[in-house]
Amino acid sequence: MTDLPIRKVLQKPDVARRMVRWAVELSEFDVQYEPRGPIKGQVYANFVVELSSANAQQEEEANFRWVLSVDGSSKQQGSGVGVILEGPNGLLIEQALRFALKANNNQAEYEALKAGMLLAKEMRARSLLAKSDSLLVTGQVIGEYQAKDPQMTTYLGYVQILKGSFAVFELVHVPREQNA
Known about the structure:
Layout (H helix, E strand, L loop, with lengths): L5 H6 L5 H11 L13 H22 L2 E10 L4 E8 L5 E8 L5 H18 L4 E6 L2 H8 L7 H14 L4 E6 L7
Parallel strand pairs: 1-4, 4-5
Antiparallel strand pairs: 1-2, 2-3
């Protein structure tokens, strides 16, 4: 059923050459025109229910606490990081990044945290629990340790800016033996 003016095409095929071809093509399928009836009030009620359930699901996902696990490592050849982000509905995102830059272990841990926080921000996470095995990075971010090195201060400042992207942000230290 449609409100489109197909009735004229089916009844007067002499309107245009292309329309005649379409009318011939459609005539073998026994297409008939029926005007659309009035829309019932139940359609509007169903629409409102569908819309409100979609909003409830979006609100539930917005309140979901995402879990971020990060680890960084450094070698002579360069540094690398591993990031695992767990989201709603069993969503699991794993990333492994390799950097050509030479960094110490603490810088690699900060790079891992930055990469994970940027990924969570891109995924529109509102509540984030981050886990790191670096006691120094965790201590500096939560304010227990002071960043004295200029590079660590720069990393800390950037992470503090990224923290503002989340309504709730928590960083916890995970001992290395529990960091799988």
